[in-house]
Amino acid sequence: MPVLPPATFLTDLHAHRAETQPDDPCWTYLGRTWTWAEAWDDIRRFAGALQRSGIGRGDRIAFLDKNNPAILTATQAVCLVGAANAIVNWRLAGDELDYVINDSGARVLFVGHELVPAIDLIRDRLTTVEQVVVVGGDADELAGWIDTAEPIDRADAVAPTDPCLVMYSSGTTGRPKGVVLTQHNMLVHTRNAMGDVEYGDGDMMLIAMPMFHVGGSSYALFGPATGTHGYVIREIDPQLLAGAMMAGATHTFLVPAVVAALLQAGPDAMGLFSRLKVFSYGAAPMPLPVLRGALQHWPDTSFMQVYGMTEMAGVVTILDDAAHRDPHHPERLGSAGKPIPGVEMRVVDPATLQDVEPGRAGELWWRTEQATIGYLGNPTATAELLVEDGWLRSGDVGRVDDEGFVFIEDRVKDMIITGGENVYSPEVERVLAEHPAVLELAVIGVPDDHWGEAVKAVVALHPDVAVEPQELIDYARERLAHYKAPSSIDVVEALPRNPSGKILKRDLRKAYWADRDRQV
């Protein structure tokens, strides 16, 4: 396991690299490479510019952009002044976008130049934003904003328990919830979640996962933790991925859908990625045919599957390479591995809240210093998440075998994971229910060999109203991020309900998952 430098604050990792290896490469992005010293100077100047704008302890900024080292700079800069960075999903639609930005309470909003038109449409609805700074492109304002500021060190009042990140996770109420993560949460996660992965001289991390996703921002922190050069691409795109491999990427973290696409692209694509020393994946289950194909094509690559959630700053279990390639236990390819150091686990009956018998399925509860301090401005949801004695209810149903391997089997929460993105069905139902033709509906996840799951709506229409499923899909896509909208719609006469009138989604899902070994 890699030995990390001593650190109390999240920025201590980067400061250590700037002192001990100042001229080594830190980040490469769009043809430019920053050294650790240059990146650290940007962080300190960014913090100075925040201070100049009146941002201090307890405040929040928001960043809306595709992947960019500036997001990582901002996350560390806020740590120096005691503020937090709310990283916004750039794929959100208009009404979702203004909700998240307003909910975050951000006073300064940083916007990628491609996304400025989306902000222009809702600017008059942003109630807390005092300043907008454009990032990149011909209208870039960030470079001047940073360059004209004096670099500062950490403010005396800042504490390790101060929030530094707000990451939005979809919620069962139909609106996203802001997960508040502290410097201590992120630092502890960085120490706990590295597994047995080694990073050596000349290694390069491909940072491809979106930074609004905990898998992107948390993974990027392994760079300053280990002193490893990070190659940042704006989004997961075949040409950008290939360019990173040609540049010498040796380690990466991706969602299973990318591997499925590589397998479909053929042997040349798979061959290019066989150069990887370590391939980590997660955020969605890997279909077993895809995983077996990757293991076959990349015999010299070390595989690591991770399972976790935003509320735990990222990873809580790891399935290591030895378990991936254990011929005596092929069933463990379907597991999420074992809990990482620093994480305790219980398997609990969600009805009685008592631990189940060994080997039985129940809700997975976790206790760890990585765990969020709660949802921003939402004490009710926080109380449902964080229960007595520091335990966090995951909402996932799982079981543990006799050697400690965790198998995720279902969800207590009504969530769909498609291509690594979390979609809560109430969000989609809230939108589709507004269509005049819809009488009642239910949104479920169905198996998809490429994305893991796909979003499906089962709809009953008003009598004597005719509408084509594609019209409903288009209606949803106009009002939701594309990945949240249903990819298919079934029209039925009526939805199944229990005696109390609740729609039986489990019954709806059965037909689609009947031949699968797990229900997620």
Radius of gyration: 23 Å
In percent terms, what proportion of residues is strand?
Answer: 25-35%
The total beta strand count reads 25
Helical fraction equals 25-40%
CATH arch. level architecture of the largest domain? 3-Layer(aba) Sandwich
The pLDDT mean sits at 92
CATH class of the largest domain: Alpha Beta
Distance between the termini: 31 Å
Give the full name of the CATH homologous superfamily of the largest domain.
ANL, N-terminal domain
Q: Can you tell me the CATH topology of the largest domain? A: Rossmann fold
Structural class: alpha/beta
Poorly predicted spans: none
Main sheet properties: 9 strands, mixed
Looking at the structure, what is the overall shape? globular
Count of the separate structural domains: 4
Strand order of the largest sheet: 2-1-10-9-11-12-13-14-15
The number of helices is 18
